[in-house]
Amino acid sequence: MTIREIAEALGAEIAQSEFEDAELTGAYTSDLLSDVMANAHDGGALITIQAHKNTVAVASLVDISVIVVCNSRPLPIDMLEAAKAQGIAVIRTRENQFTVSGKLYKALNAERM
Questions:
Q1: What HEC string does 43-109 produce?
Q2: Of 10, 38, 34, 35, nearest to 24 (Cα)?
Q3: How far is CA 16 from CA 55, 65, 104, in A?
Q4: CA angle, 73 then 7 then 99, to 5°
Q5: pLDDT tens sequence for the chain (113 residues)
Q6: Euclidean distance between CA atoms 50 and 76, whole angstroms
Q7: SS3 of residue 34 by DSSP
């Protein structure tokens, strides 16, 4: 599934829309950015409540394609500008991380199930 397809499946708002609509290879859920650096994989989604510029920096380091911000957290302008500069999509949902993780797991593994 592509980033835009995932956003639609989640009913999420695309807050930073200047990105390549790539196929996602997986997802990682964490609010601890050092954990994301150590364990997230290229081309995936980061599911988090961490809505700030440092989240984008970490996503860029591990080649995350999209940051999914949960719980309708406010998105600072500097975060969205940094994501735009890096070509990283930012989507926001009102749902929590547990729910989003389950939905993404199901969507990304639909062919295998």
A1: CCEEEECCCCHHHHHHHHHCCCCEEEECCCCCCCHHHHHHHHHHCCEEEECCCCHHHHHHHHHHHHC
A2: 10
A3: 14, 12, 19
A4: 60
A5: 999 999 999 999 999 999 999 999 899 999 999 999 999 989 999 999 999 999 999 999 999 999 999 999 999 999 999 999 999 999 999 999 999 999 999 999 886 65
A6: 11
A7: helix
- The domain defined by 3-108 carries CATH number 1.20.1730.10: no
Q: Give, for 28, the enclosing helix (H) or strand (E).
A: strand 27-29
pTM of the model: 0.95
The residues spanned by each domain of the chain are 3-108
